[in-house]
């Protein structure tokens, strides 16, 4: 079982960058796929990016793939999401989730953090 905690959200100006962190407590962190989701008010939750467990590759949402990088540091039990050239429409709660080792499927996510709020505004 994992417990996930997100950090790094806040108020950012359009065009800025930020790094979100998802830190886990629990065993076998490196085996889990970790995904980032965002949810803006009035919209459904959407997967932004995922990094598979055991070195299995990455996934990016088409609309954000040129502005987002996901990475993990298994020694720190942490997955990072770097977002560049932020836009007001990126304003959302960003949550991370942990799932099956070789799958980034939304339905395979088993553990969720509570989220961190990102607001992009001047």
Structural topology:
Elements: E1 2-7, E2 10-12, E3 18-26, E4 33-39, E5 46-51, E6 58-60, E7 68-73, E8 78-83, E9 92-99, E10 109-112, E11 116-120
Parallel strand pairs: 2-11
Antiparallel strand pairs: 1-3, 3-8, 4-5, 4-9, 5-6, 7-8, 9-10, 9-11
Structure description:
There is one protein chain. With 122 residues, the protein is mostly beta strands. It has strands at 2-7, 10-12, 18-26, 33-39, 46-51, 58-60, 68-73, 78-83, 92-99, 109-112, 116-120.
How widely separated are the two ends?
40 Å
The number of helical segments is 0
Beta-strand portion reads over 45%
Unreliable stretches: none
Give the topology string: H per helix, E per strand: EEEEEEEEEEE
Helix content: under 10%
Q: How many whole angstroms does the radius of gyration measure?
A: 13 Å
Structural class: mainly beta
Mean pLDDT: 95
What shape does the CA trace take?
A: globular
Count the E strands.
11
Offer a quick outline of the entry.
The protein has 122 residues and is mostly beta strands.
Descriptive labels:
mainly beta
């Amino acid at each position: 079982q994992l417990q996930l905690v997100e950090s790094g959200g806040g108020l950012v100006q359009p065009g800025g960058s930020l790094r979100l962190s998802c830190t886990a407590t629990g065993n076998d962190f490196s085996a889990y796929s970790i995904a980032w989701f965002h949810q803006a008010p009035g919209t459904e939750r959407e997967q932004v990016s995922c990094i598979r467990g055991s070195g299995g590759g990455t996934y990016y949402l088409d609309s954000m793939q040129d502005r987002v990088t996901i990475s993990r540091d298994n020694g720190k039990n942490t997955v990072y999401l770097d977002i560049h050239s932020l836009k007001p429409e990126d304003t959302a709660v960003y949550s991370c989730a942990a799932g099956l080792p070789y799958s980034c499927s939304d339905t395979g996510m088993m553990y969720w953090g509570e989220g961190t709020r990102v607001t992009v505004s001047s």
